[in-house]
Amino acid sequence: MRKNKRPELSQVVEDIYDTALDSARWKDTIAKIAEFVGGQAGGLALKDCQSKNLNVFYDVGFDPECIEVYLETYSKFDPLATAPLFDMRRVASVPDLMPYDEYLNGRFYREWAKPRGWLDSANAIIERSGTSSTLLRIVTSKKTGLVDDNMRERLAQVVPHVRRATLVGKSIDLKHAEAAMLAETLDGLSAGLFLVDAKARIVHANEAARDILEGGDFLRSMDGRLVARDAEINQSLRDLFALAGDGDAALGTRGIALRLTARDGERYAAHVLPLSSGERRRAGISYAAVAAMFVRKATLQAPSTAEAIGRTYRLTRTELRVLLAVVELESLSEAAQVLGIADTTVKFHLGNIYAKTGANRVTGLIKLMAGLSNPLLD
Lowest-pLDDT range, 23-37, 252-266, 293-307? Predict the structure, then answer.
C-alpha cells in the first residue's frame, strides 16, 4: 500500500458511511483506515466461532497469493482465530491476545507473517453473533513497529462508524444503492426505512416503515415527527438526527444500534445513517433529509462457546487457548506446534483445565465443548 499523507478523521468517516450504500467501496475505505491508523495493510474478516476459521472478505495491502496461502494453510494458526474473543470496546494487539514470544515462535509468524515483514496488528470486533464475529484488522510492519497507544486511539475513533455502516449495510442487504434514488431503491426492503430531517420530521417512509407507524407501538408519527414510545430512546433519536446535520463524525459512538421493544416483547434494532456528506449527501438534498433510519427485527446474540466455557470454568486466557487448540487438533504435539510452546507446557495447562472442568481426557473436553455449543445435546 502506497504511503500517502495521513487523511483526516472526517475524510475516513465519510468514506466509511458511503460503504453502507455501496459495498464495493470497502477495499478503498480500508486502505484509508489503515493510512489514518498508521498501518501497512488491513482487512475485514469473519471469524467462525465454532470451526475457528477466519475468512477475509475485504483486504488491502496483501497480494492475492498471500491471501490464498493464508486461507488454505495459516488462518487456523492466526492469533485472531485461535484466541478467545475480546471485549468489543477494546482494540487488541497481538500481545493482548497471547504472549508475544509464543507468537514469534509459532508457525503463523515464522512462516507467514515474518517473511512479509508483518510485526503486529490492531484488531477490533465490529459485530458479534452466536456463531460468528466480524473483525477489523490493521497490520503493522517492522517499519511502523508494534501497535502503540496512538494507533489504538485512532482505530478506536474509527470503529464505531465502521460498526454503524456495517449494520446499516446488513439491513439494506444490497450490493449497490444509488444515493440520489435512495428511497425508491429501498422501498421494497423488509426493513423499515425512515428519511428524517434534523428535527425528526419524516420526509419519507417505505412500506415496512409505514406498517410500523400504523401499529402505533414502539414508533409512531406525531405532527409529522418520528417519535419513540420509550422516552430515553426518543431523546436519543432526537439527538442523533440533530447531530447528523453536523456531519458524519459528529455521531461518534452514540446510538450505533438502538434497541426498540414492542408491547408484545418483540425486539427491534434501529440504525441511523447520516446523509450530510459523501455520496449520501445527494439523497439528503433530494429528500431534505439529514439521516436515514433502518428498523428491523433484532436477532438473538448468544455468547460463543469459547466465551461460555471460559466463564463457566474460570479458565485463564492461556488455558482457553490451549483448550481450543487441543480440541480442534486432537493432538497435544500439534497443539504445541500451533501455539509455539513446548509439549510440557501444553501438558501443564491441560492438567489445570482437567482439574477445573472435571474432564480427564481430550474426548471429554470435546464433549464438553459440544454440550455448550448445543444445549440440547446430552
Answer: 293-307
Asked whether 234 and 219 are in contact (CB, 8 A), the reply is no
d(CA 94, CA 243): 36
Nearest-angstrom CA–CA distance, 355 and 145: 40
HEC assignment per residue over 148-204: CHHHHHHHHHHHHHHHHHHHHHHHHCCCECCHHHHHHHHCCCCCEEEEECCCCEEEE
Report which DSSP code applies to 243. H
Domain finish residue from 236, 271, 297 = 297
pLDDT at 176 over 60: no
57 domain-assigned: yes
- 120 in Cβ contact with 140 (< 8 Å): yes
Cα separation, 139 vs 143, in Å, equals: 11
Tell whether 28 and 167 lie within a shared domain: yes
Co-location of 148 and 187 in the same domain: no
**Domain assignment of residue 4, yes or no:** no
Q: What is the pLDDT of residue 2?
A: 46
Q: Give CA–CA dist 37/309, Å, rounded.
A: 34
**Domain-ending residue, one of 172, 193, 208:** 172
Determine the longest span between alpha carbons in the chain, in angstroms: 71
CATH value at residue 334: 1.10.10.10
20: nearest Cα among 162, 158, 135:
162
Residue (of 86, 16, 38, 12) closest to 256 by Cα position:
16
Full residue range of the structural domain in which residue 253 is found: 179-297
Task: Report the alpha-carbon distance of residue 151 to residue 68 in Å, rounded.
Answer: 28
**What are the tens digits of pLDDT across the range 105-124?**
999 999 999 999 999 999 99
CA–CA distance from 182 to each of 32, 289, 320, 325 (Å)? 25, 11, 46, 47
Backbone angles phi and psi of 25, in degrees to 5: -80, -10
Please indicate, yes or no, whether residues 105 and 243 belong to a single structural domain of this protein.
no
